[in-house]
Protein 1
Amino acid sequence: MAKWVNADVLDAALNNIKNNCNAVAAILAYTAGDSYATVTGGSNVLAQVAVTSADFTGPSGSTSRALTLNSGKQDTAANADGNPTHIAFLDTVNSKVLWVTDETSANSITTGNPVTFPSLVYTSNQPT
């Protein structure tokens, strides 16, 4: 049995992130399905930077479609000390968590220090 989805459908999901994400945050903890209040509450956010759709490249690709956060976005002064475990892409206007990915650099963040967010890629694939 063959499965397939049009690239426009894959792009629609990626464009939702691109068009609605206005902040990216390095966070201490995340469990699948955590609410916006949990993700952004208390001292969970170590660093956060504002973004616009211009900070993303894509969606692009052939069989799979990809959306990339361009590198170099910087929070000039981190909110708190800690070792982030995840990066959260947020819609702060509508209080939504749009995408969460692992933070794998193992870099420690220190309050007041600058934090530069890396290039991150989200891929939307054909069904299998």
Protein 2
Amino acid sequence: MSNIKKNFIYNIVYQILIMILPLITTPYISRVLGTEGIGVYSYTYSIVYYFILFAMLGINNYGNRQIAKVRDDKQKLAKTFTGIYAMQIITSLIMILLYIIYLKFFVHTNKYIAVIQIIYLIATMFDINWFFFGLEKFKLTVTRNVFIKLITVICIFLFVKQKGDVYLYTIIMSVGTLVSQLLLWPFVKKYTKLVKIEIKDIIKHLKPCAILFIPTIAVSLYKTMDKIMLGNMTDMHQVGLYENSEKTTNIITAVITALGTVMLPRMSNLVANGEKEKEKEYIKKSMEFTFFSSSAMAFGLMAIAPTFAPLFFGNEFNGVDNIIKYLSITTIFISVANVIRTQYIIPHEKDKIYIYSVSLGAIINIIINAIMIPKYQSIGAAIGTIFAEFSVMLYQIFCVRKEIDIVYYLKKGFSYIIAGIFMYVLVSSLYYIIKNSIVRLLVQFLVGAVVYLGISIYIYMKNSGYKNVMEIIKAYKH
């Protein structure tokens, strides 16, 4: 099995774990902390998240790309790693200082929770996932994260018992992140080392990092600002509703976008070595997989949301199903844009396209949020996100249309969208036929899976020229 397949499987396993663990903890946390408690945690985390973004300053994408380029040269690898990490230490310390000032002079409510959130910021100082991603050492990061996630889940059930335990929940989540980052450091010496560098070796990374930071901050404006605007324009109840809705759709999006995490270092390496044909082949396969998986998950989640949400979150979160339906639409937009970004734009250093696209999305999101949130509350925030994600995808498609045969991919992908719509209509109708919620959910899932897979296999065979399923299996093994 190729390294790409192995790395993708590692990431999929991890993303499935991320998907399963919230299925265990979220119903419990939703009932124990309630909408107010979850809203407080989500709002305070959204604030510290902006300090984290400035601390990382675009290093995740930039570091991943640079390490992938020099990983075959030990001397360059050590110098590049040291230079980038030194810059990360400096920016992290500055942001920790600024966050302390923010706590002192600007926080008047939920201050205790906001203070605990600083642990996330401290964890950022030790975050070197970008280094191991650039080396394509996904097994190491995945196994570490699996271990920490399991410990975190156990701690949540052991210690979070009542509505006032928001502070304990915050401690568990933030300390888990810190420990997760620290556990990677013992493995660094196996691949490289920190070496003596000059100031110029740090400064040279500042500008390209800052360029990739612009889209990062822009993305945050329609990923995180939603909750801040909701908190300021409505109340913590609405933030709690939106948080759980977004958390649900993020689970399925994370599974699909795991492909981008795997492909970014590989595509950066191919670009550096001028292997254009391999690039095209990988993008072609990724696009088909993306349309297949995102259509299934988006329309599938939309169909089961009215049954799933009350069972999963409890009666206090009434209305979450409608928000989930809206946010599910964005899964397709996010997934397609993810392929274009991680497999073409960033590897080819076409950073301006990335910057302009997400800046456009941020502007559209803020405008629509300002108009829609006062009247429609969390639904208004979801509508803003739909327009933002669609505009990002559309702009990126327009900019790369001459380099990538995007029209060809969209035509093939549209078949999977039609299959998803057909599945949605069929699965949704079961809501009115089966009365028992648990039985209904199981039947909806099974019917949706069988129908969608059946149609998709036919589409794939038609597109690829295979005569039967066995030919597809044999081709995959090779």
Protein 3
Amino acid sequence: MRPRARWTWVLVALMAAACADADFAVDGARAHRRVAFQCDAGPRIPGTPGHRAVQDWIAAEMAKLGGTVRLQSFMDSTLGTPESLTNLIGRWEPKSGADRPPLVLCAHYDTRPWADQDPDSAKRRTPIPGANDGASGVAVLLEVAELMAKRKPPRPVELVFFDGEDQGAEHDPNTYSRGARGYAARVEPKPRAAFLFDMVGDRDLAIHPEANSVERAANVASMVVSAAKAVHAPHFFPEPRYHMTDDHIPLLEAGIPAVDIIDFDYAAWHTTQDLPDQVSAESLAEVSRVAAWLVFESPLSKAP
């Protein structure tokens, strides 16, 4: 090949790569600001001012970014006393095929009322700030909404923000994921698949396939690994790790293929130190690129 022709092809390749990157041009700094905003609102325990403020803010952000927003409110009596919970659902339509079952990306927006894992026993009845455990997943989903505001997804996409994930008793897994249980009991039609983002902003990010996801939704779990390879996400790994009880379990039990994207190796989990300084803009951006590939480029996004 002649030198001029060679450099022409190099330039074309670089321009194509730049265009591909621009399609998933997420903003980690913006995502981190959204994490900080949620923490500044205070504890997001159902019934508190911080919870209502963040609920209203998420709904407003989705509407601003072109989503059709609805609230799924219901009473839950898991802990013996009726409690009002509200899931937030935003929907983005494709140019065609809006009647196909949606692809769901989900996260929880509530925070734990007790820092039961805090090294200081005097703080274990203090609500956690929930920067990584709650706010990071919300921020990632809103980054995907930013992209969908500019480019229609190939199939219907719903962003679902679960309430009541972290209100459970410490040693009773059946008292967690109450918003997800309410959603799974009411959703119609069933989503094509669901991707849960929980604790995805750790400064020392290391995301492995979650074992329940691999065992019960292997094809969907493998797509997360494929997504990470496609967008060159260096902190995603192929080896499964941990069986987690999380919001994906009620979805799996309802027959919805669902996976948990989570980095559970997080020292500030359920402590008062779960603060924005433990969360990285780079980690949020990396996970957001993976989420964007799942929405726009995965086989599921284009399937019937």
Protein 4
Amino acid sequence: MDLVALQEIRWLGNDTLEKKNCAIFYSCNPVRHVLGIGFYVSSRFLPNILLFEPVSDRLCWIRVRGKFRNYSIINVHAPTEDKDDERKDKFYLELEIIYSRCPKHDIKMVLGDFKSKVGREENNHPFAGRNGLHEESNENGYKLVQFAATTDMIIGGTIFTHKNIHKAT
């Protein structure tokens, strides 16, 4: 694999760790070994990296040169369902700000762990498909659908038909 989004790295600070066969771009808590996200990039793919921007221990993004268009890939690790609404709202506000800063003509992808259950409710369409694992969304699922609606994106894990065993992470 040439590019992998990582969650729960649990390192300190923001940096790039370069090894012989890869580089790891990371954005972690500056003082505690908690959370932390980043990207693994193979050395073969490294020349295609245009930009890496650490935002917090829950958000970072990378810009990749493509053949016809560039890609802006945002990596997320959302707060869990039991966290307070203020923390969740702050996370989604930061995510929307980062999304809006991505170049307009880039292909945009948001990857990571949203800690959400997106149900098959009719009001989730057309931003979520009918092939999700869950019947009903949880609060984080509704926030994810709202983000998808705001940014005109699609929640890809709910679009394609798969066996239930392949829908869970």
